[in-house]
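Handoff note, outgoing to incoming analyst
You'll be picking up this chain. Sequence as last confirmed:
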Amino acid sequence: MEKKSLPDVKIRKLTLKDLPQVAIIQESLIKTKVTPQKMAILREHIKKEGNISLVAVLGGQVVGFMISEVMMNSFGLDQSGWIENFGVFPKYMGRGIGQSLATRLFEEYQKRQIHEVYTAARWDSVDLLSFFKSVGFDRSDFINLYKKLEQKE
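Most recent structure output, in case you need it:
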């Protein structure tokens, strides 16, 4: 069964009142509860001046989100956009919502004269990698590095 696109989807700025719905979408994707700490980080992100984060709304419900941040003088880049988190409610996937969010985000970055946008994804997240490829992402000059710190009690 082919999913049809949703022309009535509205893209707008993410607000604090959207957080519960964003958390529900996130939980449906990661199959675990969004912790209060993660909610606090999201709240602070939304309050931070200059960030561009968006939601897709259908019939008054948030059905998708894209959280990004503008980085200045970071690792040799004058300024850049970073997509930090993204999700679409599973029953609405494949209907152009992610494409609409990405298109609007790129437009907002261009208005600010930001021409480089980065993100990261796990190598085994095939659907996510496929989505980012579909909106024009490719491998970057950066290499992701990782260090696990000991948990202290």
